[in-house]
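Hey team,

Sharing the Heat shock protein Hsp-161/Hsp-1611 (Trinotate prediction) run so nobody has to redo it. Sequence (133 residues) first:
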Amino acid sequence: MEGYVFVLRKNVKNTVIKKMIYLEPELEDLSTKNQYHLKLNLEGYKPDDVVVTTIGKDLIIEGKHQKEETSEDGCSTYFESGNYKRRIYLGDDIDEGSIKAKFTKDGAIEIMAKRDPKKAKLQHKKLPIEQEK
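Structure output:
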């Protein structure tokens, strides 16, 4: 859905350089017939920066982070602030009780859940049209 990084750099001459960058982290679908498996690259975020929730059949991933660095000579400061939010429809065949989230060492979050084909509902249904009298 959305992801923004705001970068602010200030140097000894009090020159401020600002820029806003739109980022869409890579989402990889590793799902199989029996398991739902997504991997979302959130490099730069820490596990405490990310919240994963479900609302009905939707999975919501939100992240916020801040980073500040000062150069060794103290002449410049680098500040970065990022926000991310994505909503993903899980599907009708997901076993809601089996959903798990894991933050990996390489800065990705993995979402896994068992698939239960018995829970899958009819996707398309032709509706009869009644005529008003």
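The longest strand covers residues 76-89.

Ping me if you want the raw files.
A.
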